[in-house]
Amino acid sequence: MFEYAPAPESRDIVDIKPSYGLFINGEWVEPQSEERHKTVNPATEEVLSEIVWAGEADVDRAVEAARKAFATWSAVPGSERAKYIFRIARIIQERSRELAVLESLDNGKPIRESRDVDLPLVAAHFFYYAGWADKLSYAGFGPDPRPLGVAGQVIPWNFPLLMLAWKIAPALACGNTVVLKPAETTPLTALAFAEICRQADLPPGVVNIVTGAGETGSALVRHPGVDKVAFTGSTEVGRLIARSVAGSRKKLTLELGGKAANIVFEDAAVDQAVEGIVNGIFFNQGHVCCAGSRLLVQESVAEEVLDALKRRLATLRMGDPLDKNTDIGAINSAAQLAKIRELSEAGESEGAERWSPPCPIPDRGFWFPPTVFTGVAQSHRIAREEIFGPVLSVLTFRTPAEAIEKANNTPYGLSAGVWTEKGSLMLWAASRLRAGVVWSNTFNRFDPASPFGGFKESGYGREGGRHGLEAYLAV
Amino acid sequence: MSERLAVRKTYKLFIGGAFPRSESGRSYVVTSSKGDFLANASRASRKDARDAVSAARKAFPGWSGATAYNRGQVLYRVAEMLEGRRAQFAAEIADAEGVGARKAGELVDAAVDRLVWYAGWSDKIGAVLGSANPVAGPYFNLSSPEPTGVVAVVAPPLGSLAGLVGVIAPVIVTGNTCVVIAPERAPLPSITLAEVLATSDVPGGVVNILTGSAAEIAPWLAGHMDVNAVDLAGADPDLAVTCEELAAENLKRVVRPPAAPVDWLADPGTDRMTAFLETKTVWHPIGT
């Protein structure tokens, strides 16, 4: 591996306050809750700031503000709503370097990804849905589709600002108002977004940001003043939310876990497939619900693919997320690191063979090296459970029918990958995979125009594209 | 000369294309709207519900893999067979709902017409809901609807045939299979419909019909891990909450009971089809 000199992106561009309040009705307000917690840089464990864990009274205040704002915001003509959202998109583009650095600091993801993937997609998402705001009557949901009201939105820590964009952009375009809770370990870009709403002169109460952990989220989704609940996160929490809205008229969309199969057929272009496998599971440290965490490789090419994969993994650089050469950043939290370790140990104890490239681990922070398990059986925990880390489980198959059988042998159904040079085989496989997104000869591609969401226990509803509007309209 | 003694019909369950009695051996008395004895119907048990789910699951690959044209033809065939039994259905509806012969006939006609309407959707819904998405990169990107899987349906209590067709047709036309709990008080048209389905080229297991108590059977289906969705059209509020909570266990798609009574004779729109469809998006690079 070539030695590269460090090339860190400067963090001077960000201005992090020592503590933050809640963003309610267009203002920073002091919370009633006295619970405050620190958010740290997972690469160094350095404390970045202190945030509130909002209580029921705080959530109530935010929902109240959103309710009040709904009356006026839903009456704003679509063409005017569109202009606010376009404004937001532009401000994000203008401040994208700052937001990328902030995201990498708080989340641990490499700057290369926050700068080249997250932020461009965030801006594009607002830009895309801004254009829908005055065209809803052409979207196929009737001549005059109406908004739902107040959307309570709870998002995860893996793509903090991107998940915010996926939630807020369509909600506002359809005329809803929003109370959003970012994840407790990655609140900073959502709080920066609150400032962006002010810069855009968005009317007060249209977007409210309440920070906190599970209890804050629970108070939000259970609040009787919420008409719509949107959640991205674990299947376990998704179940609790689905149960909690039972018997209400709240509309619910859930984007939950996955255990995607990435299928490599024997005629695949090996070098391209290896790049796709790496991107599939090591992108964002594997903190991706649609990660290609199960590699299914045809037996006849398994050795060749695995050799090439191991050679490629030896060239990945793990370390400082702000270094522009870094491929793999830090694990987001100590808790997540413990979970990845626990499952990896289960993989070994259940009999799979563990391999990692030589990979120096920094002294401080939360780190886990890229890891490949071979000899994995379908019954192993590492083949069934979502690890949400840089851990790949390799299984083999002999026939296309066996590949599909194994790929679908999971309660999840979010995504899948297919690698083959044969068009008819690709379409055959894609039609049989029970997954909401199928990437063929590519992986982990996202676009605001492309609907995203799962089958089965990966949740319901779609985000992105025309389909994504349905979640925020009374249809 | 004595009057000829009528041969009474035994109404059984409809599971996997066959007509078994409940394995529990239970039955219950079905009366007309005036309280006269009509028949004994089977009272389905948990085991029957589970058998019905496994029949529906078994039928799913074939039915969802059939061409849309084929599914449309099969649904149209159901309409033809229903039309042929118009008199029988009209008599059963008149008994069950206490409506006059003319009204009962109209209700049968509405059910036939609704089947014809849905039959035509089989090869059009994909064009209406699907899309080629203009992503910002060299990729072909196509979204298309696919059936959710096995759907459990609590049929609406009234409008016994139009309501029944109104909940079954939209589920199966797109490739789902289903287990239907017939209206408890008026289950007979459901079983007669099963006889129509059994002779209409609908593969066994695509539609399974259980008679008995919705309060007893629906929770088993709502909590069943191999059911993908529940339609609570005919569930009362308490049952609906119970079922929705149980459905959360494997994240079933849930259609809640309607907020206001449904007019099953009015244009239903596409909602009952879209509720049981998943959007699949396929990406492929474009290049030389």
Sequence-ordered SSE layout with sheet pairings:
The complex is a heterodimer of chains A (475) and B (288).
Chain A: E1 22-24, E2 27-29, E3 36-40, E4 47-52, H1 56-73, H2 78-94, H3 96-107, H4 111-132, E5 150-154, H5 160-173, E6 177-181, H6 188-199, E7 207-209, H7 214-222, E8 228-232, H8 235-244, E9 251-255, E10 261-264, H9 270-282, E11 294-298, H10 302-313, H11 334-349, E12 353-355, E13 371-374, H12 381-384, E14 391-397, H13 400-407, E15 415-419, H14 423-432, E16 437-440, E17 459-460
Parallel strand pairs in A: 5-6, 5-8, 6-7, 8-9, 10-11, 10-15, 11-14, 13-14, 15-16
Antiparallel strand pairs in A: 1-2, 3-4, 9-17, 12-13
Chain B: E1 27-31, E2 37-42, H1 46-65, H2 68-84, H3 86-97, H4 101-121, H5 125-129, E3 131-132, E4 139-147, E5 150-154, H6 162-173, E6 177-181, H7 188-198, E7 207-210, H8 214-222, E8 229-231, H9 237-247, E9 253-255, H10 271-274, E10 277-285
Parallel strand pairs in B: 5-6, 5-8, 6-7, 8-9
Antiparallel strand pairs in B: 1-2, 3-4, 4-10
InterPro entries (chain A): Ald_DH/histidinol_DH, Ald_DH_C, Ald_DH_CS_GLU, Ald_DH_N, Aldehyde_DH_dom
Family (chain A): Belongs to the aldehyde dehydrogenase family.
Organism (chain A): Microbispora corallina
Description:
The complex is a heterodimer of chains A (475) and B (288). Chain A has helices at 56-73, 78-94, 96-107, 111-132, 160-173, 188-199, 214-222, 235-244, 270-282, 302-313, 334-349, 381-384, 400-407, 423-432; strands at residues 22-24, 27-29, 36-40, 47-52, 150-154, 177-181, 207-209, 228-232, 251-255, 261-264, 294-298, 353-355, 371-374, 391-397, 415-419, 437-440, 459-460. In chain A, helix 2 packs antiparallel against helix 4, helix 4 runs parallel beside helix 5 (160-173) and helix 9 crosses helix 10. The N and C termini of chain A lie far apart (56 Å). Chain A folds into 2 domains: 22-256 and 455-472, Aldehyde Dehydrogenase, Chain A, domain 1, CATH 3.40.605.10; 261-440, Aldehyde Dehydrogenase, Chain A, domain 2. The longest helix of chain A has 22 residues, at 111-132. In chain A, helix 5 (160-173) links the parallel strand 5 and strand 6. Chain A is α/β, with parallel strands linked by helices and 475 residues long. The model of chain A has no long low-confidence stretch (mean pLDDT 97). Chain A is globular, with a radius of gyration of 22 Å. Chain B is of the alpha/beta class and 288 residues long. The mean pLDDT of chain B is 95. In chain B, strand 6 (177-181), helix 7 (188-198) and strand 7 form a beta-alpha-beta unit. Chain B has a single domain (27-285), classed as Aldehyde Dehydrogenase, Chain A, domain 1. Chain B is globular and about 85 Å long. A 5-stranded parallel beta sheet of chain B has the order 7-6-5-8-9, sandwiched between helices. In chain B, strands 3-4-10 form a 3-stranded antiparallel beta sheet. A two-stranded antiparallel sheet of chain B has the order 1-2. The longest helix of chain B is centred in the middle third of the chain and has 21 residues, at 101-121. The chains are: A alpha/beta (475), B alpha/beta (288). The A-B interface holds A 124, 140, 235, 238-240, 242-243, 246-247, 249, 254, 256, 411, 426, 430, 435-442, 445, 447, 449-453, 455-460, 462, 465-467, 475 and B 128-129, 131, 133-137, 139, 141, 143, 146, 148-149, 228, 237, 240-241, 244-245, 247-251, 253, 256, 259, 271, 278-285.
